Amino acid sequence: MACCGVYCNRPFSSGVLSTIIPMQSINNTYKWIWGLACWLLLAPQAFASGVGSFEALAKEANAVIRSEETVFTVNSISSGTLRFKTTVTILNENGDHRATIYVPYDDMSKVSYISGTCYDRLGKKIKKLKNSDIKDVSSVSSFSVYEDDRVKIASLEYNVYPYTVEFEYEVSQKNMMFYPHWLPQDEEKLSVEKASLEVQMPVGMPLRYLEKNMPQKAEKSNNGTLELYRWELKDLKPVYREPYGPGLVELVPQVITAPTEFEVDGYKGRMETWKDFGIWINKLNAGRDVLPEATVAKLKQLTANAKTPEEKVNLVYDYMQGKTRYVSIQLGIGGWQPFEASFVDSKGYGDCKALSNYTKAMLAAVGVNSYYALIKAGEGTPDIRTEFPSTQFNHVILCVPMAQDTMWLECTSQTAAAGYNGSFTGDRHALLITPEGGKLVKTTSYGAAENQQVRKLQVKLDEKGNGTANVETHYTGIQQESRDGVLHNLKPEEQRKWLYEQVKAPSFEISKYSFSQQKERVPRITENLKLSLRQCATLSGKRMFISPNLMSKWSYVPDQKEKRSTEVVRTMAFSDVDTVEIQVPAGYAVEYLPQEVMCKSVFGEYKASFKVEGQRILYVRQMQMGKGRFAPETFTKLVEFYNNIIKADAEQVVFVKNVP
């Protein structure tokens, strides 16, 4: 599934200082301590304002934002300017990415200037940024034909710590859908000594904003021609996410701003309500859903024998998947306005907007009503701020209301099952674009009953403890998604390699494997494996020790601090059932059989049973986990629950050989 660049806050995102390289969660090294001590004693006041404060902020941090100023000036509903200036001290190699800035722009924005300077630990100037040092590259994605997105990249990395970088730039903007989302502390192990945001609005033009975790409200003033809104933060120590804790965005101060009125490429709109924003999208889409008469006739013939609306949807969706492919072409207003349905019909390609609009037109041709829907897509992506209408979306899908239920169509995928949201767009809010305007609705949420892993193993052991196993596993819902990717994107030799990395079993070789898929509202993949197992059982004298849980041993227990400060957040529910039959060689009798194990907690349930019938062990393991938010004090119960499961999963059945 593809995620378009549509509706994202491209030019004014607060994360322009961050690279695409993820931060690693490793302990800080202290090789820079001596340099830091010298720097604190000798650095000019420009870099050492408040040494005591800096020492506290530098502790356990990779970098410290010494000062950061963001000034956003709105000239009119169709133009504005962003000025950004920052000074950052880099404390170790894990903070080096803060010494590089990425300034995106496109046909609707212009970078006026970028300047930068690097200083060593003594405050001595090392380098001043030259124009020749600034790279200007296309940010076209690999699946795009053409986009107007570009980015200017400037780096002042140095290899002796600590060092300090200063950057300043200005961007003028003609796309006024986007106002700043201010988030100075945008990663873990980052401190902020001082940061400010100022938004300057023409008198009589109101600013809409949402404050989260801010110690102080906005300071408002008026200079006669502009209404000024100002926020300031000081002395923010590093923030750390706790295991199973809320996302960083819930923990740090931030301000989201948005217009009431705006204009993009001549299209005026309002954003005060979700309804208003939907009306603007309707303006962009108007008249772009007309199909050629020949295509309409073909669709009516295709669905002539369909007995239900859902059957019609499936037929049209399959036709669309077979006829089109995802390609992003986004220029100017095309980043938000779809291609005409007739264009997609003739060319056979389009982005998420175009393909959703095309499918909507095809469904209308056979008498099925559907709605274009904006959504913030991505696995693990937090939901939008529903209380604050603004451009928080990055993708478009299609909603098809049904008498009993709603179907959601991911129109960028050639393999997805009709009606399945999954981890990419499930369990979050979407903005339906109805004839009356925008309306927020929730997409499908998947629980333990939908996200299943049901496995059956039949194992035959020999006298040496080796064995052969036939394994059949059914994966459904979110649990089948990784296999879906393997099935459709990897070659057979790559699939086999992937299985060797993923299968958790004693030393094994894959003799044979296969996948099969059922496309339903909750899709299913069946995986069949034939394995050769080495030392599946342990021999000691005349005894044979067998751990019947061969493939589903739980191993993860999160670190537990003395005091938990944030809620416990579980974002995925699932149900795993393993049924294992192990055939033991003749001449062995059971000596020890574990008791049935049952564990229950607010987070889920676990049950394991053991039975021996002659030379056959029958082991059944069931584990079900829910999702939700739980009080911080329940974290100790989660750790206890996982430890009990690990202990139960390690249980062994002991056989002893009968000696004549």
From TrEMBL:
Segments forming domain DUF3857: 80-239
Pfam family, one: DUF3857
Name of the protein in question: DUF3857 domain-containing protein
Lineage, uppermost ranks: Bacteria, Pseudomonadati, Bacteroidota, Cytophagia, Cytophagales
